[in-house]
Write a structure and sequence with these properties.
Strand content: 5-15%
Order of helices and strands: HEEEHEHHEHHEEH
Mean pLDDT: 92
Radius of gyration: 16 Å
Number of strands: 7
Largest sheet: 5 strands, mixed
Distance between the termini: 39 Å
Helix content: 25-40%
Number of helices: 7
Strand order of the largest sheet: 2-4-5-7-6
Shape: globular
Structural class: alpha+beta
Low-confidence stretches: none
């Protein structure tokens, strides 16, 4: 079934796109060697392992607050604009085939539960990170779903506050949030693994006067 979003503000919301942007020109920096990085989303250019300096600094602070036995595991940071467009168009086509009754606007919103439209995509700004928790050996903790499970694949359990989560997964998601929220990151509520800082969604969510990071490239 198509899982609706209730009161969640989607990243496709016109209010998000209307948020002013004043890019502070911080560089993209390599996460590797500073935090644990998984290679499942690796691209030939290595964009996946890069983030803006400001968000990486915050992630390092968050890492230091985790209890013994827990570490951040970075799965994907920066994403090229062409990759973002390909992912968005592919998922939209999948949903169109699965739910032929959706109007174009509904289809756009449904796609945006899982993939950001290119014009506001925080990954293309180096401002978003997909991440999870792992132990010192790199084994991932149970978070309820795999990273990048769609709402259809997960039965809606990819939503951060999904009501039917196993207790261990709920505890681990709260632990992740307890590390990331105090350093200023915000979660996209339909994806427990997606956190950002400095992008338009962050600015809209926090009430900041403008976003700090716009689309950039290596």
């Amino acid at each position: 079934m198509w899982h609706p979003t209730g009161g969640i503000v989607l990243i496709s919301d016109p209010r998000v796109a209307a948020t002013p942007l004043v890019d502070n020109s911080e560089p993209l920096v390599d996460v590797r060697g500073r935090l644990r990085v998984d290679e499942r989303m690796a691209d030939p250019e290595g964009a996946y392992a890069h983030l803006r300096q400001g968000i990486l600094d915050r992630l390092e602070r968050a890492e230091r607050t985790l209890p013994d036995g827990y570490h951040l595991l970075i799965v994907e940071g920066h994403r090229t604009i062409s990759s973002q467009r390909q992912i968005f168009d592919g998922y939209r086509a999948e949903l169109a085939g699965r739910f032929p009754g959706l109007t174009p606007d509904e289809l756009h919103s449904a796609t945006s539960r899982y993939v950001s439209p290119v014009d506001v995509a925080p990954h293309t700004a180096g401002a978003a990170v997909d991440l999870t928790l792992c132990d010192p050996d790199g084994s991932e903790y149970d978070m309820g779903t795999a990273i990048n499970d769609t709402p259809e694949q997960s039965g809606g359990l990819c939503y951060t506050a999904a009501p039917d989560l196993p207790e261990a997964a709920r505890r681990h998601r709260k632990l992740l949030a307890a590390a990331l929220e105090p350093v200023g990151l915000v979660n996209y509520p339909t994806e427990w693994w997606h956190w950002s800082y400095g992008d338009r969604y962050w600015a809209f969510t926090t009430g900041a006067p403008h976003a700090l990071y716009g689309p950039t490239s290596l």
